[in-house]
Amino acid sequence: MRRAAPLDDATRGRLLHGAHHDPHGVLGAHPVPGGVAFRALRPYARAVAVTAEGLRAELYDEGEGFFAAVLPLGEAPAGYRLAVTYDDARLEIEDPYRFLPALGELDLHLIGEGRHEELWQALGARPMTHEGVAGTRFAVWAPNAQGVRVVGDFNYWDGTGHPMRSLGGTGVWELFLPGVGEGALYKFQLTRPDGSHTMRADPMARRAEVPPANASIVHASHHLWRDGTWMEQRGARPVHEAPFSVYEVHLPSWRPGLTYRQLADQLPAYVKDLGFTHVELMPVAEHPFGGSWGYQVTGFYAPTARLGTPDDFKYLVDALHRAGIGVLMDWVPAHFPRDDWALAEFDGRPLYEHQDPLRAAHPDWGTLEFDYGRKEVRNFLVANAVYWCQEFHIDGLRVDAVASMLYLDYSREAGQWTPNEHGGRENLDAVAFLQEMNATVYRRCPGVVTIAEESTAWDGVTRATHHMGPGGFGGLGFGLKWNMGWMHDSLEYVSKEPVHRKYHHGEMTFAMVYAYSENYVLPISHDEVVHGKRSLVSKMPGDWWQQRATHRAFLGFMWAHPGKQLLFMGQEFAQGAEWAERHGPDWWLLDPSYSAEADHRGVRDLVRDLNVCYRAAPALWQYDTVPQGFEWVAGDAAEDNVFAFLRLAADGSPLLSVSNFSPVVRHGYRLGVPARNTAWGEWEEVLNTDALRYGGSGITNPDPVKAESVRSHGRAASIDVTLPPLATVWLRPV
């Protein structure tokens, strides 16, 4: 045995500073003339020896944690180990620098192309057995870094002895650490181009610490799914031609203090009892500030640890599926926060955000916008969409803030933005990203739906990506789009005193002018019941009875209107207070000991019956996205504050919805009805929001109403009905 050739000062310095791109070329075992050179970097060690079967050789101490020697061997012993002696301990470990890369050439090729659709399998921390040894492979994309080291609780957060290697020109750094397993805390220490260091959470971490702590956690899933029946059947019928009513939930505050597993014991039963087909979960991806409600994400691949582990979240999704409830989640690819341990200037330069500071800075939220023109960033986001659907069995992604992505001048004044290559305001990179994301999700995840929160009149949000529109763009490829116009207009109408509503009648009918331009969801979401906007029932004018009556009438109108329905938690029982994430819904309103409990329970009973009747009536959803499914009966009764329309199923069977938004009873109100079928001679009430059991005045049409050969509303037949005050009535042929 002899001393190894000393390292030159530059190599030694780069390794100690964390700025070496190929530590495996220096550390580990390498053939040299006359034998094999072994070199280890073990800071704070007193001695290091190489051990193998029939071999033990002490390495020479070269100072600053370096130990090396040349052994007279023909080749390095297979599976050799390092015996490391510290002041207070002696360990025998595998040498991380004797292993070949644990990332394959195909993975690197796909990453380089920006086409790795299962990116989470390649990057991040993955427990595995590599070359017969158990450990964890760490991999991170950081093309601007001079060097990257792994730090964690397994090395006392000192990464000096664990530098990573750069894998070609992909910008990916990799290191397999033997003996590191599930539950280990870790981060990446990056050496920036200017030589400074930064400690970062893993962008691909599948599990994170509970905020405000922010380390990443090595994770492998052990959940055994039991929702096979749901997954096999969920794509059997297109969403557009199926019942689709959504209960929007902020998980941390629905029942404050409950974990994912505890929620699994309560939420599915509650939602199933109310008859909703889906829940929509406000962003579950990890986020540092709870007050952002999850919309400022730092861990795009990690469910928030506030409520449990990733497997706990899978348990909740599984329970919802087994209860027959689909799971949508809000997904936030529009921006990310500036926390200095997360994505912002990740490797010392703009990486996930746009290089142009004006393009990078989001003017409304103090966050950073993604650079959709960079293929690796697109890959990060497209794979993330697939990840939630594939790994967590999510049934749909509601994509947040799409409008802010589509327009270069979004919330920007003149001079604060640069036109695209054609001189326009469209963000062509974002368009291409959304098209790629939607196409990829629909191809890989049958039965999944994507939903855009898009507040402008962008053409073709729910048009197929290969169908060109008049503006020269293919469709964005979403399945559904939130109808923000309907939401604003209809809430504006019902917030008026009844005497003034006739002047705003068009705000309730205008949505039908464009109803079939996209495939719509009608959202009464969290955004409408916070920050001074008041809860839904509190938007209504009049005394408490009138407020509840209008609330019920509005829900009846909404459930019958073309488009899918979405209702935020608390609004199903007419909570009077605005939502606050600190305490969630006012469940005490449903306590039988509360004097007004019946008022709130009545509204919840109505929501249940709305969902039951809705799901049982194909007329309300079968032709939801085509004009054949709707006919106005009375769309111009402004003086009466009345709206009446027919919904039609594929076989032509109708349902008549009539809303009276005036506080007076209208006796003998004649409405034209179809006369195509002799079996439609009598019409019966299916639902009446003024029923006593809902807290109404009990004015109903208790007996079937006979159709007469009296022309009305351009129809040869009509019925004579009583319209309750501030109420919606649904009727169908007997």
Spatial strand order of the main sheet: 17-18-21-24-25-26-27-28
Radius of gyration: 31 Å
Shape: elongated
Total helical elements: 16
Query: What is the first-to-last residue Cα distance?
Result: 99 Å
The percentage helix is 10-25%
Structural class: alpha+beta
- Average pLDDT over all residues: 95
Number of strands: 36
| Content of β-strand | 25-35%
* Biggest sheet layout: 8 strands, parallel, barrel
Low-confidence stretches: none
Layout of strands and helices, then pairs:
Blueprint: H1 9-17, E1 28-32, E2 35-41, E3 47-52, E4 55-58, E5 60-63, E6 66-71, E7 81-85, E8 90-94, H2 105-113, E9 124-130, E10 133-141, E11 147-152, E12 165-166, E13 172-178, E14 185-191, E15 197-200, E16 216-217, H3 228-233, E17 245-249, H4 251-254, H5 260-274, E18 278-281, E19 285-286, E20 299-303, H6 310-322, E21 326-331, E22 335-336, H7 357-360, E23 368-369, H8 375-391, E24 396-399, H9 402-406, H10 428-444, E25 449-452, E26 480-482, H11 484-494, H12 498-501, H13 506-509, E27 520-524, H14 536-539, H15 544-560, E28 564-568, H16 597-616, E29 630-637, E30 642-648, E31 654-660, E32 666-673, E33 682-688, E34 705-706, E35 717-723, E36 727-733
Parallel strand pairs: 17-18, 17-28, 18-21, 21-24, 24-25, 25-26, 26-27, 27-28
Antiparallel strand pairs: 1-2, 2-6, 3-4, 3-7, 5-6, 7-8, 9-10, 10-13, 11-14, 12-13, 14-15, 14-16, 19-20, 22-23, 29-30, 30-31, 31-36, 32-35, 33-34, 33-36
